[in-house]
Specification:
The chain has two domains: about 240 residues, TIM Barrel; about 70 residues, no CATH class. The chain contains twelve helices and 15 strands. This is Heme chaperone HemW. One of its GO terms (cellular component) is cytoplasm. It is found in: Cytoplasm.
Length: about 350
């Protein structure tokens, strides 16, 4: 698995806490050069063999702010390591996913797109400070399909002040009129350092509304395979994270993991360009790894294998089993309601004993 972080954005969304910049476009070429340097280093560190990378994901920021021409040297270097059936995803914003950009990325080998739509309500898009409107979103997705992209996803945001069942229903209806096979639904969260930091009232999650929303999405034949992700197609890259696989994190503010170590390239883009190998590492204890596997397992279809649990934790899991809050099959506990995932994980874990 390989993740590449592109930190450039047309505008800074009011809720965004990701490492992104609206005023650093002049650094694009230097940033790509730095990515190439780090890529050389990581391919050796992770001992990546030819034809072995199963997934590549371009995230951001906004990957569609970089021209396909700038991506060419990266794809040329990565190509020998990609499996023949590799899933190659790029995130994109509707306003910058032009015909030329989509065509160029298709030529490079990108075979899956994830569009940051967030809503088809223009007033809500303005509130979130998105750079596109609903018409651009529909046009970009239809164009991507026309150009041959078979796997297309879009993001929607819910739990925003002003959200109603009627507004969200319209978002869902419009989403499913488009040629998509995957949808991500994210609750608006207020994070430090964002424009919404001092406006906690902008986020209003209602459990009943969220439950209804997830049910409506599922009615369209999209299986919920993780707390925020639904699809008739399941992203291999997403599934890799839930399965706790190793992954390279390339770029300023990216994160990588190999075995019991997590890697953090510097999040300052200027510093990253100066020294892309200035990467901090974090040691993960056995307890850290177990705790993360439990959290990820209950937030997804992966589940939690009984072998990693203590006797006391198994007893607690069996209490939840009797209450129909967990399902047990093939030595694995599964969570049928992802909205309760964190509470179940906290109840279960026995690290203090």
């Amino acid at each position: 698995m390989l993740y590449i972080h592109i930190p450039f954005c047309d505008s800074k969304c009011s809720y965004c806490a990701f490492n992104s910049y609206v005023d650093k476009f002049h650094l694009k070429q230097k940033y790509v050069d730095a990515l190439l340097s780090q890529l050389d280093f990581e391919l050796k560190r992770f001992d990546i063999k030819k034809n072995s990378l199963k997934t590549l994901f371009l995230g951001g920021g906004t990957p569609s702010t970089l021209s396909p021409k700038l991506y060419e040297p990266l794809f040329k270097k990565i190509k020998p390591y990609l499996a023949s059936d590799a899933e190659i995803t790029s995130e994109a914003n509707p306003n910058s996913a032009t015909h030329e950009w989509l065509e160029g990325m298709n030529t490079l080998g990108v075979n899956r797109l994830s569009f940051g739509v967030q809503s088809f309500n223009d007033e809500k898009l303005k509130l979130l400070n998105r750079a596109h409107n609903s018409s651009q979103a529909k046009t970009a997705i239809k164009l991507a399909s026309k150009l041959g992209f078979k796997n297309i996803s879009l993001d929607l945001i819910y739990a925003t002040a002003g959200d109603t069942k009627e507004l969200l229903q319209k978002d869902i209806d419009k989403a499913f009129k488009l040629p998509i096979n995957h949808l991500s639904a994210y609750a608006l969260t207020i994070e430090e350092g964002t424009a919404f930091e001092n406006k906690p009232q902008m986020s209003k999650e209602n459990l009943d509304l969220t439950t209804w929303l997830f049910s409506e999405i599922s009615k369209h034949g999209f299986e919920q395979y993780e707390i925020s992700n639904f699809g008739s197609y399941k992203s291999k890259h997403n599934m890799g994270y839930w399965r706790y696989k190793d992954y390279i994190g390339l770029g300023s503010g990216a994160v990588g993991k190999k075995g019991n170590k997590r890697f953090y390239p510097t999040s300052d883009i200027d510093e990253y360009i100066k020294n892309p190998l200035n990467i901090k590492d974090e040691f993960l204890s056995d307890e850290d790894i177990k705790f993360e596997k439990i959290f990820l397992g209950f937030r997804s279809l992966i589940g939690v294998n009984i072998d990693i649990l203590t006797h006391k934790e198994i007893q607690k899991a069996n209490i939840l089993l009797k209450e129909n809050k967990l399902i047990f099959n093939s030595n694995t506990y599964y969570n049928p309601n992802f909205l309760l995932a964190d509470e179940i994980a906290i109840f279960l874990t026995d690290f203090n004993n």
